[in-house]
Amino acid sequence: MVWLGVIVLAGLAFWVSRRLHRYPGGWAFAFSLQYEGDRDALEHARSEVRAWTRRAEQDESSARRAVTAAESIQERRLQELEHRRTRLRHPGSGEQVGVLGSLTLFQHRLMVKSDSGIASVELVQMEVHFSTDHMYHHVYCINSGGQSLQAKYRHLPPAPETQEQCFDEGTVRDFVRDIQKAVTRENSFREQLPSQLKAVESEREAVEKDTGAADAAREQLEETRERNRQDPRGRVLEEKLEEALKDWEELTGRVPPR
């Protein structure tokens, strides 16, 4: 229980110290019932100013939040458009569309795995050919830049001791058609790319110029600040507090804090 007593004494000491600070001049002025009315008058003037200041600060804080919100909306939209422009300019491989053996098809590229590593070519203007021989189906892919990929798919059952997978002709042809469809989509994407980039840039410029909401919020903030500065109620309360502080100084010879 000793620690509890220490806490109580510390709290009491803090309260006494604070009261002597708030109502300077000695113990009598700070605690005596004789000066309770003087203390109440001073504290009332203080609380009135605090309440007024708090209300004014809340009004201005609300107006500042409105400015921040309007600016954030505009900035967020600009970031979205910038990300969209970046994705259009640098689409990368895109999402995976399908896999067959050593070939992996993505939205914008085709990749092939081989013993020497992984090769990748763009789909734009790619030509895709299928052929077959007595042992393998073959897929040949050549894009507009002359880059080529090829893959082979065994259809003749391998020797029992090998682990090579077999593919039927229908499965390989279906994958070839998937590649061709992806090429068609990629060609369309590339054809529309200039107009899409132009549209994004135009929208970005429009968003940059559209500062109406933020300007209105900033104007409201300035009006709120000016209204609080010019409101006579604030000045009246400040004058009453100054009068209460002076009365206390005349009573005790000490200047109390606000």
Structural class: alpha+beta
Number of domains: 2
Rg value:
40 Å
Relative helix content: 55-70%
Please report the distance between the alpha carbons of the first and last residues: 38 Å
Order of secondary-structure elements: HHHEEEEEEEHHH
* Count of distinct strands: 7
- Counting DSSP H or I runs of 4 or more residues, the number of helices is 6
- Major sheet: order of its strands? 1-2-3-4
Average pLDDT, rounded to a whole number, is 89
Q: Which descriptor suits the 3D outline?
A: elongated
**CATH homologous superfamily grouping of the largest domain:** Pleckstrin-homology domain (PH domain)/Phosphotyrosine-binding domain (PTB)
CATH architecture of the largest domain: Roll
Largest sheet: 4 strands, antiparallel
Beta-strand portion reads: 15-25%
The fold-level CATH name of the largest domain is PH-domain like
Q: Tell me the name of the CATH class of the largest domain.
A: Mainly Beta
Query: Low-confidence parts, pLDDT < 50 over ≥5 residues?
Result: none
Region (Disordered): 200-238
Topology, element by element:
Elements: H1 2-22, H2 27-31, H3 36-89, E1 96-100, E2 103-106, E3 109-114, E4 117-122, E5 127-132, E6 136-142, E7 148-154, H4 169-209, H5 212-230, H6 232-252
Antiparallel strand pairs: 1-2, 2-3, 3-4, 5-6, 6-7
Helix pairs in contact: 3-4, 3-5, 3-6
Can you offer a commentary on this structure?
Residues 200-238 are annotated as: Disordered. By secondary structure, this protein is α+β, with helices and mostly antiparallel strands. It folds into 2 domains: 18-86 and 213-247; 96-209, Pleckstrin-homology domain (PH domain)/Phosphotyrosine-binding domain (PTB) (PH-domain like, Roll). The protein has 6 helices and 7 strands. It has helices at 2-22, 27-31, 36-89, 169-209, 212-230, 232-252; strands spanning 96-100, 103-106, 109-114, 117-122, 127-132, 136-142, 148-154. The strands form 2 sheets. Strands 1-2-3-4 form a 4-stranded antiparallel β-sheet, with helices on one face. A 3-stranded antiparallel β-sheet has the order 5-6-7, with helices on one face. A hairpin with a 2-residue loop joins strand 3 and strand 4.
